Amino acid sequence: NTGLRYSPNNITAKVGTAIEFNFFPNNHSVVQSSFANPCHPLAGGFFSSFVPTKSSPSGTSFTVIVNDTSPIWFYYSQTSSSHCQTDTSFFCMVGAINAPSSGNTLEALITLVENSTASTSPPG
Fold this sequence. Notes:
single chain, mainly beta, 4-stranded mixed β-sheet, about 5% helix
């Protein structure tokens, strides 16, 4: 059991690659954040909206196109029993596309998440 997390949660992708997020029960989302402020939406970033489903996978997907090689940070925006930062050994619904291998790594983001106290969801 790997808990509730994005799989894979650390993606390396070339410019032009389409990253497809598929959703599992019950009601999930993917939201772009920043490294400095994980678990909070990035102004102008992407948001899948919540995708309610009873089947696994739902058949509904959300696609992000990689436009450059800069890191893209993302999280699940449920605010009740936040899956973004609650008990990162089981819940850790954060991830990265093109995270660096040193400095602001996915592991460093997870450490920031463990020390955060709240999550927010974009309107919509």
